[in-house]
């Protein structure tokens, strides 16, 4: 059943451009303002994403620890994403069966502000092998999820979801 969850990630080129193919094994629910669930490929207006989302982590084990990464692989624009990836958020040591507020924020949440084109904002959840010190990257630009995962021995993600957003114009806000 979980393998069907990877298909939209592959269609949206999250699998391939951001992470390698993986099998989702943990339930992750991402929600802005208690009513805007993040669903793969759905659009969320940037004005709805100014506050950090609530991220609930499933899993079977409270002793397990997870790292959440939020990244934009389309910065500054999808046709020429030369800043790929732009890092928006990292939270580590999130206990299983809880939510992100129980973790340790090592890179503060940055609101999506797409300027050119439609951007993908990707939430990736990794199961940590141990409680560990994950070092924040030196820069938000040129972030690389695969390299970060390798440097911190995180392996492949155990869950992922992404939404699309584009610059708001006065006409689109209505």
From TrEMBL:
Protein name: CEN-like protein 1
Transmembrane annotation, as ranges: none
Record-linked InterPro entries: PEBP, PEBP-like_sf, PEBP_euk, Phosphatidylethanolamine-bd_CS
Organism: Rhododendron williamsianum
Similarity section: Belongs to the phosphatidylethanolamine-binding protein family.
SUPFAM superfamilies with a match to the protein in the record: PEBP-like
């Amino acid at each position: 059943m979980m393998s069907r969850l990877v298909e939209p990630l592959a269609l949206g080129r999250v699998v391939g451009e951001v992470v390698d193919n993986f099998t989702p094994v943990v339930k992750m629910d991402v929600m802005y303002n208690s009513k805007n669930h993040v669903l793969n490929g759905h659009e969320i207006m940037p004005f709805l994403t100014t506050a950090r989302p609530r991220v609930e982590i499933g899993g079977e084990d409270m002793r397990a620890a997870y790292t959440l990464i939020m990244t934009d692989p389309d910065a500054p624009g999808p046709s020429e994403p030369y800043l790929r990836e732009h890092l928006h958020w990292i939270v580590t040591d999130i206990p299983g069966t809880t939510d992100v507020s129980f973790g340790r924020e090592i890179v503060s949440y940055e609101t999506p502000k797409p300027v050119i084109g439609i951007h993908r904002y990707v939430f990736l959840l990794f199961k940590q092998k141990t409680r560990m010190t994950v070092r924040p990257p030196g820069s938000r630009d040129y972030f690389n999820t695969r390299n970060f995962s390798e440097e911190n021995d995180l392996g492949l993600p155990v869950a992922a979801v992404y939404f699309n957003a584009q610059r708001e114009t006065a006409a689109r806000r209505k």
